[in-house]
Amino acid sequence: MRRITFDLDVLRTFVTGVDMGSFAKAADRLGRSTSAVSAQLKKLEDQLGMPVLRKEGRGMATTPAGESLLGYARRLLELNDEAATAVRGAELAGSVRLGIQQDFGEQMLTEVLGRFTRVHPQVRIEARVARNSELMELLGGGKLDLALAWDNGVAAPHAVDVNRLPMRWIGATDEARLALDGNARDAHEPLPLVMMDAPCIMRSAAIRALDQAGIPWRIAFTSPGLSGVWAAAAAGLGVTVRTELGLPPSLRVLDTHDAPWLPPLPDVGLRLHRAEAELNPPAQRLHDIVLQALTS
């Protein structure tokens, strides 16, 4: 059987194109022409002897072979990038103070920070998982170097806009516990809400949307932490509003089938804040790795 040695550069183009949903956009991000990207994809298919992409509507989708290759390609690229970072930053030492919004705590701690620590064992990371308002206070008080937080609408001189994510109505997976009376709107019964303590971006967005739609509501449960909100919503005390990030299996996004009368919600921006315009080398390295993880 012929042995195949994959070109990592070609795999990076393949993964980037699939993630972005467009190989034209991938060409722009990678600094290549669309014809060069097409040539790379043809090379990949020639190596495999089978297609990795198929037409779907106006776009492209992965074939079964492409879907299988995608997982391996991600692992190969991650290992390659980790090795390159380790070699370049072998002498990196010092400390970094990072603040993480609660929605990202589990993912960032296990994935990004774990990888960073393996690559830079001499760098000490002080991580704090907290609410937006606390993170901004700590950052402004010089107690954090970096903070990953939701966009609160306040100008941030040393911040990068990472992404925008849709807010969602969320309720219990268990239909018996889902706190939505099918006749709630007709009977003008207040919608029970499970929310974080004020001030909270998601709480404000939910109340504003309900008020604009003329839907009565009541605060059924509040919590200073996200874990309390998840537990109360899963128990059926009410519905809540968050993004889909870190959603526990006991909760689900509510669609038009569950409650077609629930009003639409806006997107919320995600920012990576820096305490200063110029960071020390360990903080800058972590900044770049976090940004890469969230935008790749």
Automatic annotation (TrEMBL):
Pfam family membership, one: LysR_substrate
- Gene Ontology MF annotations: DNA binding; DNA-binding transcription factor activity
Q: Which family does it belong to?
A: Belongs to the LysR transcriptional regulatory family.
The signal sequence is: none
- Which SUPFAM superfamilies does the record match to this protein? Periplasmic binding protein-like II, Winged helix' DNA-binding domain
Q: Which UniProt keywords apply?
A: DNA-binding, Transcription, Transcription regulation
Species per Swiss-Prot/TrEMBL record: Duganella rivi
**Domain named HTH lysR-type: which ranges?**
6-63
Q: Which Gene3D superfamilies match?
A: Periplasmic binding protein-like II, Winged helix-like DNA-binding domain superfamily/Winged helix DNA-binding domain
PANTHER family xref list: HTH-TYPE TRANSCRIPTIONAL REGULATOR LRHA-RELATED (PTHR30579:SF7), TRANSCRIPTIONAL REGULATOR (PTHR30579)
Q: Which InterPro entries match?
A: LTTR, LysR_HTH_N, LysR_subst-bd, WH-like_DNA-bd_sf, WH_DNA-bd_sf
Q: What is this protein called?
A: LysR family transcriptional regulator
